């Protein structure tokens, strides 16, 4: 194989593995939520996931350096001796924390259907951040495929509204404001991390260690702010089973593969991969849980598949940080 073909095959391999891991994770998560009598604290699971990702990254860095001396030198130089880099990599963790809180606030103040539709705007927002922050261009066909993917994911995840007698006081203006912030945070954080990864020759595993260290602190704070009283009463590992640990392990591996995908492809391709995982996990749920396929799901899955095909048609490489000046109009619509 030529170097270009080998690079393409590696990118496709990363995307395929991420898609399969994400689909398996979704299925396993659904199983734990439908079979366990005592539900675990999801906030503690997120915290443990960050710890496992940190440990896996340390192990992979040790393997990459090849010797204990070089491993210690790498940690000393890039982690312990680089507080500025730690601060730089804490930005995605903090922004993701804001995103999660804004998404919860939006869900509390918007109808579920409105939330499902508007939150998928994070897909074109990611594409826009990619264009503006990384100086890339997307063709008209790629923009069409991005918005088609947005519509497809919305239909795949669509659940008809159910009538309820419970009256919940909502503030739509607050909800739309929160969803706008969540969408912007999602696009910015992902593209910011991609820019940091691709703007230097620093090891991917070093970057992961730097980010997960701050991620552990952020998730620990969030855990005790959300469930601190219940955790003190029932324990940090309340409700954990072998299946829960399996879900946490899948989430950790998926997180590592996500960083690999961002490093060697881009955040837009990550979005397409995540959409494909949603479709695959839903199809698998038909066999495992008796889930019924609806017309909206079938149409959404078709849109997802077509959008992936259309996005792959242009031959322009959008996976590296481009140098040089282009006008905003040229970057938004490359022909």
Mean pLDDT, to the nearest integer, reads 80
Distance between the termini: 30 Å
Q: What general outline do the C-alpha atoms trace? A: globular
Number of helices: 13
Work out the strand percent: under 5%
Tell me about the biggest sheet? none
What's the total number of strands? 0
Order of helices and strands: HHHHHHHHHHHHH
Unreliable spans are none
The residue fraction in helices comes out at over 70%
Transmembrane segments: 12-33, 39-62, 141-158, 173-193, 205-225, 237-260, 272-289, 295-313
Protein name: Solute carrier family 35 (CMP-sialic acid transporter), member 1
Family: Belongs to the nucleotide-sugar transporter family. SLC35A subfamily.
Keywords: Membrane, Sugar transport, Transmembrane, Transmembrane helix, Transport
Key terms for this structure?
335 residues; mainly alpha; 0% strand; pyrimidine nucleotide-sugar transmembrane transporter activity; membrane; transport; Solute carrier family 35 (CMP-sialic acid transporter), member 1
């Amino acid at each position: 194989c030529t170097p270009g073909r080998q690079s393409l095959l590696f990118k496709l391999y990363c995307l395929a593995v991420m898609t399969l891991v994400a689909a398996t994770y979704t299925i396993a998560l659904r199983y734990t939520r439908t079979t366990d009598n005592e539900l675990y604290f999801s906030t503690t699971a997120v915290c443990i996931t960050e710890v496992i990702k940190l440990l896996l990254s340390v192990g992979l860095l040790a393997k990459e350096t090849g010797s204990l001396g070089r491993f210690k030198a790498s940690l000393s130089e890039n982690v312990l001796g680089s507080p500025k880099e730690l601060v730089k990599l804490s930005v995605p963790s903090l922004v993701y924390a804001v995103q999660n809180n804004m998404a919860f606030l939006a869900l509390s103040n918007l109808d579920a259907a409105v939330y499902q539709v508007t939150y998928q705007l994070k897909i074109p927002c990611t594409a826009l951040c990619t264009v503006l922050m990384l100086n890339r261009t997307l063709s008209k066909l790629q923009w069409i495929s991005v918005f088609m993917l947005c519509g497809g994911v919305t239909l795949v995840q669509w659940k008809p509204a159910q009538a309820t007698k419970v009256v919940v006081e909502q503030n739509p203006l607050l909800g739309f404001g929160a969803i706008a912030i969540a969408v912007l945070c999602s696009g910015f954080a992902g593209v910011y991390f991609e820019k940091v990864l691709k703007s230097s020759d620093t090891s991917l595993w070093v970057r992961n260690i730097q980010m997960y260290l701050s991620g552990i602190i952020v998730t620990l704070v969030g855990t005790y702010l959300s469930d601190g009283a219940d955790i003190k009463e029932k324990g940090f590992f309340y409700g954990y089973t072998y299946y829960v640990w399996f879900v946490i392990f899948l989430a950790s591996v998926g997180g590592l593969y996500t960083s690999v995908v961002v490093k060697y492809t881009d955040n837009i391709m990550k979005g397409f991969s995540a959409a494909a995982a949603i479709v695959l996990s839903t199809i698998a749920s038909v066999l495992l849980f008796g889930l019924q396929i609806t017309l909206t799901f079938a149409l959404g899955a078709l849109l997802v598949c077509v959008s992936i095909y259309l996005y792959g048609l242009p031959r322009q490489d959008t996976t590296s940080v481009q140098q040089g000046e282009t006008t905003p109009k040229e970057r938004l619509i490359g022909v």
